Amino acid sequence: MRALALGLCGLVAALFAVSLTVGPAEIGPGESLRALVMGDAGPLTLVMREIRLPRALLAALVGGGLGLAGAAMQGYLRNPLADPGLIGVSASAALGAVLAIQTGVAAAVWIGLPAMALIGAALGVGLVLMLAGQHGGSLTLILAGIAVSALAGALTALVLNLSPNPFAASEIVFWTMGSLADRSMSHLWLALPLVVAGAAVLLRLGPALDALTLGEDAAASLGVRVERLRLSLVAGTALIVGGTTAVAGAIGFVGLVIPHILRPLVGARPARLLWASALGGAALILAADIAVRVVVPERDLKLGVLTALVGAPVFLHLIWRSRRLEA
Amino acid sequence: MSLLTLDGIGVTLRGRRVLSDVSLTVGPQELVGLLGANGSGKTTLLRAALGLVPHEGLSSLAALPPSARARAAAWMPQGRAVAWPVAVEEVVALGRMPHGDGRTETGRAAVDHALTRLGLDPFRRRAATRLSGGETARVLLARALAQDAPLLLADEPMAGLDPAHQIAVMRLLRDLAREGRGIVVSMHDLALAARYCTRLIVLSGGGVTADGPPEEILTPDLLRDAFGLEAQIVDTPHGPLLDAHGVAP
């Protein structure tokens, strides 16, 4: 277990360093890291501190948050196909962002888009909690999430449909693909408190999620307050998904694939899977964000497109392997 | 001293009255067999006693806060699903959660003890999802045992076990009761109940129709009225035996 933790930490650290040294400005890794740490008034320090550092930090934050939220959601629903987007927060955050782009708020002030996305996320999670209620089971939560996702998706499609401005429409389409390009430290400061707060909530659910392995009844008899657990799960996931979607757009497959890959390595225990998936998610997004810059540097390949492109075949492979094991 | 006191328990589920006015107490050294036909409310009574379903009346367990209740009573529900391929010993170690000592000496000792008592030592490191139904049942019973609570409530722990393991489990429960625990176990096998339980409680028509030592209450009349059986209890050198010879008209 310690080996896994150290390995994942090392991987994240290495990818973080690589992420800092990759970019269109052709500078050697040693020189760029020196400019970042030592600092002077030169353009290189500016590039490192204002462009690459926030990008790398955001990649780790977004990936870590989504990995953690995915592990928590799968643990609570006792289903390896669960995804943090299931409770409708990413779809409603996307709707908020799309409205910001469409109305021009996004172009007027940088905070316009993330703020509207956060409002969308808050409304979405409020609606889910209202539908799923205080006492509903996990099935009600899934259904409420699907309903809210569908509603937000329909409204997003409506905005696109009625958009009189083709530039806004294409901007919307590209935004929904998710990206970490051209983000500033301000984006990081906006997302950081939300993701950290959400992570603090979710990381404490470990023992309760372990107990839930035996079902809600057995967990309750072991002292788990199942209703409080559900509320914490929804709140923590909403903070993370809302925060990350607001600054990076919708990035799929991380929360689904990472817990799935790491589960056998942690003895399938939901509590251990939480921190492992946070590290694994951070590593995946850092790697993906390096890839979009390296593979086709002249085209603006979107991060969400790449994660889906890599995630889907990996997932198919996992399904194929587990089917073979079951047979 | 009583480990469980129920006073006037009534439960209505989805508009249907399942139980009304059930009162009983369970003390140490009692192995109580909870009997009744399908749908007579055995599971509901146990869940109400634990405060897991909304109910009227008073239950000494349901009145406790969840963490204190987890130290007062262990519960083995009927559901046998283990969601993740977790190692058997880790599943059993979940029973130490109320004590918060799963990683310490005492906690490990309790887990080892529970595994050994249910003959699970060879399965320790096997994934709990790769066991047969009967093996899973024993793992879950070991989990409840590791919780080391003075009261054990088990919902049909013998379902899906082969005859030898059914007897082994009943003997284990009898030994646990003799060591001072109180045990309530819902079950269908009247012969096993008659042979091993110190007391039987029969549910029918939403209430307790009989409560007492097996030899006193398992009369041909009760067997016919509560279970729809033409049967009698016969004494043999090895203990009471159920001679069922027909279904009541």
TrEMBL record, chain A:
Keywords: Cell membrane, Membrane, Transmembrane, Transmembrane helix, Transport. One of its GO terms (molecular function) is transmembrane transporter activity. The keyword Membrane applies. GO terms for cellular component: plasma membrane. The keyword Iron does not apply. Pfam families: FecCD. It comes from the Bacteria. GO terms for biological process: siderophore-iron import into cell. The chain crosses the membrane at residues 56-77, 84-101, 107-132, 139-160, 187-205, 233-262, 274-296, 303-320. It is a multi-pass membrane protein. This is HmuU protein. It comes from Jannaschia aquimarina.
Automatic annotation (TrEMBL), chain B:
Keywords: ATP-binding, Hydrolase, Nucleotide-binding, Translocase, Transport. SMART domains: AAA. It is an enzyme of class 3 (hydrolase). Residues 4-230 form the ABC transporter domain. Its EC number is 3.6.3.-. SUPFAM superfamilies: P-loop containing nucleoside triphosphate hydrolases. GO terms for molecular function: ATP binding; ATP hydrolysis activity. InterPro entries: AAA+_ATPase (IPR003593), ABC_transporter-like_ATP-bd (IPR003439), P-loop_NTPase (IPR027417). It holds the Pfam family ABC_tran. Part of the ABC transporter complex HmuTUV involved in hemin import. Responsible for energy coupling to the transport system. This is HmuV protein. It comes from Jannaschia aquimarina.
